[in-house]
């Protein structure tokens, strides 16, 4: 990088302004700002004067066309100041629409137009100029200007908060680059290998991730076709575990060859459970009875439902612990996963209850009786999100030819492993072989909250011999699949593409909520395929061999470590 204060050319021939030109522009802009302030003051003063005079004429029944000399002068001043303001701000606005920002930046220092250094947009990055198309996964050193270098030093010194870069610069990609370099200088650690280019940082602003410095690459594989409820699905799975996609794909093949699987949505309702406290346990019990009284449900539901077009209160389940009361609200949430939706509805009800029960002390909008992102018996028993059961009958010849095992060993293994073994371990919702593997992979690929894999993977896998012991009946019951097709990470380009592949992108216009319910059944169907394949591998003694083949790197680790 050249010394500070000298002109430096960037890609595309752009020049960075020197310190001298910056100072000239600063003085000119100060004078222009002063002139603008004078004309704005004159404009509003004249408007106020004219409005007051016309109001007096109306009150005195004086004709409006009869004007005094002072009023004529005021009208002339009004038009003069109006023309000036339109000429200054209006031309700049039209110019920004017609002339691309990049073309303004390409003008040399000798030109009449100067690059605007301050960005006054209300949304910092929504209209940021697109960065030039980079090389795919470019990890080469960043080309930073002198101005960027000063900002980096300010961030490292603690004078500029890292979280404020997007709003300060108005360019999300540039903010990420500056934050990344500041982090490397502050820690002395390199981020080479973590890509920066090739990602739309505007799309995550204020909704997906704060203070980004790059993005992590996770490969996406396809398992399928999965034949479910008469339709075929190619299931995207984002994972770094070798053999997982191949194993799930084998399960899909066995299901397809046997005529497909079927699934049913048992329940559909997201929950939120605030905790409140009273002076006595008796008062807590009184609120419990009030909330569970059928006569009060309709007015409470009207209050709850007013917060959203799709959120509809279904039930309120209460539990008392001493003088504390836990209220578990359940509501439908359309195609959204619905945590924010149900929280808004609950807040409305809490505001209402505070008036009816003024001695109620709201401790927290979430009291863990929901229960979110934690294994909990209440989710296992009552359900949360989508409760789904999925089943298939695998024919005897498919079990032998595709899965390389027999029905009897599979049934015995499932009983001793998934049922008895899980009970011995004190499992909570973990009566399966590896449901969380498939749930996590599909969740990451489709933009779900990966942390909700905890309760979404609650699953009991059942197997039994049918048709005189020749065929295998397999089912998975999953009571708390928390999933959506709108909001959060579902709107990101990659995740949106995976949802589109499954035919459930965005919200359903015809039947709100049908896309998220369909996605939940696909997750359950993929889990069914994964359970079938892994259990077959265990029964046939294939697990270790397959993982040694597909889940181990062929690189010489000693050479990699020495590099």
Features:
alpha+beta, two-stranded antiparallel sheet, endoplasmic reticulum, 19 helices, disordered N terminus, 3-hydroxy-3-methylglutaryl-coenzyme A Reductase, Chain A, domain 2, 563 residues, single chain, 9-stranded mixed β-sheet, Alpha-Beta Plaits, glycoprotein
What does the overall shape look like? Answer: extended
> According to CATH, what is the class of the domain at 220-268 and 386-552?
Alpha Beta
Q: What is the string of SSEs from the N terminus onward? A: HHHHHHEEHEEHHEEHEHEHHEHHEEHHHH
Strand composition percent: 15-25%
Q: What's the average pLDDT?
A: 85
- Which sheet architecture does the biggest sheet show? 9 strands, mixed
By DSSP (H or I, 4+ residues per run), the number of helices equals 19
What is the assigned CATH homologous superfamily of the domain at 220-268 and 386-552? 3-hydroxy-3-methylglutaryl-coenzyme A Reductase, Chain A, domain 2
The helix fraction, in percent, is 40-55%
Cα radius of gyration in angstroms = 32 Å
- CATH third-tier fold name of the domain at 220-268 and 386-552: 3-hydroxy-3-methylglutaryl-coenzyme A Reductase, Chain A, domain 2
CATH architecture of the domain at 220-268 and 386-552: Alpha-Beta Complex
E-strand count: 11
Q: Which parts are unreliable, with pLDDT below 50 for 5 consecutive residues or more?
A: 1-28, 97-122, 130-140
- Report how far apart the termini are: 28 Å
The assigned structural class equals alpha+beta
């Amino acid at each position: 990088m050249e010394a500070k204060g000298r002109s430096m050319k960037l890609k595309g021939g752009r020049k960075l302004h020197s310190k001298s030109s910056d100072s000239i522009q600063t003085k000119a802009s100060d004078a222009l700002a002063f002139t603008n302030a004078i004309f704005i003051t004159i404009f509003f003063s004249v408007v106020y004067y004219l409005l007051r005079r016309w109001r007096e004429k109306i009150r005195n029944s004086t004709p409006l066309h009869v004007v005094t000399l002072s009023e004529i002068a005021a009208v002339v001043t009004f038009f003069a100041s109006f023309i000036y303001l339109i000429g200054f701000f209006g031309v700049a606005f039209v110019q920004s629409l017609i002339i691309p920002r990049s073309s303004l930046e390409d003008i040399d220092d000798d030109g009449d137009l100067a690059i605007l250094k301050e960005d006054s947009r209300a949304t910092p990055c929504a209209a940021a100029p697109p960065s030039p198309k980079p090389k795919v996964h470019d990890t080469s050193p960043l080309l930073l200007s002198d101005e960027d270098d000063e900002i980096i030093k300010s961030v490292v010194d603690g004078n500029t908060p890292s979280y404020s870069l997007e709003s300060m610069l108005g360019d999300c990609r540039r903010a990420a680059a500056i934050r990344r370099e500041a982090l490397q200088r502050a820690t002395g650690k390199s981020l080479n290998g973590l890509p920066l280019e090739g990602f739309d940082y505007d799309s995550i602003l204020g909704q997906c991730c704060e203070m980004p410095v790059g993005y992590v690459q996770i490969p996406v594989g396809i398992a399928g076709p999965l034949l479910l409820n008469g339709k075929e699905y190619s299931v995207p799975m984002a994972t770094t575990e070798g053999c997982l996609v191949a194993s799930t794909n084998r399960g899909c093949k066995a299901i397809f060859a046997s005529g497909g699987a079927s699934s049913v949505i048992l329940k559909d309702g997201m929950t939120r459970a605030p905790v409140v406290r009273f002076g006595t346990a008796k008062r807590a019990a009184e609120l419990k009875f009030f909330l569970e009284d059928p006569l009060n449900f309709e007015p409470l539901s009207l209050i709850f439902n007013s917060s959203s077009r799709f959120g509809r209160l279904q039930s309120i389940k209460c539990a008392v612990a001493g003088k504390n009361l836990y209220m578990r609200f359940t509501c439908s949430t359309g195609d959204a996963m619905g945590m924010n939706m149900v929280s808004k509805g609950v807040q409305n009800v809490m505001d209402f209850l505070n008036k009816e029960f003024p001695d109620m002390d709201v401790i927290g909008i979430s009291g863990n009786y929901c229960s979110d992102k934690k294994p909990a018996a209440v989710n296992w028993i009552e359900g949360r999100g989508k409760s789904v059961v999925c089943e298939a009958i695998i024919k005897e010849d498919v079990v032998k030819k595709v899965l390389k095992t027999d029905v009897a060993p599979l049934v015995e293994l499932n009983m001793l492993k998934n049922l008895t073994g899980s009970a011995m371990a004190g499992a909570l919702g973990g009566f399966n072989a590896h449901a969380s593997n498939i749930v996590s992979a599909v969740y990451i690929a489709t933009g779900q909250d990966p942390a909700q894999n905890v309760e979404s993977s609650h699953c009991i896998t059942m197997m039994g011999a049918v048709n005189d012991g020749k065929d295998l009946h397999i089912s998975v019951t999953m009571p708390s699949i928390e999933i959506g097709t709108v909001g959060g990470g579902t709107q990101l380009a990659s995740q949106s593409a995976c949802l589109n592949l499954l035919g459930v992108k965005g919200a359903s216009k015809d039947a709100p909520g049908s896309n998220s319910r369909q996605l939940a059944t696909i997750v359950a169907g993929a889990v069914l395929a994964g359970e079938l394949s892994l259990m077959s591998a265990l029964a046939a003694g294939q697990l270790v061999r397959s993982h040694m083949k597909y889940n181990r790197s062929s690189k010489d680790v000693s050479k990699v470590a020495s590099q």
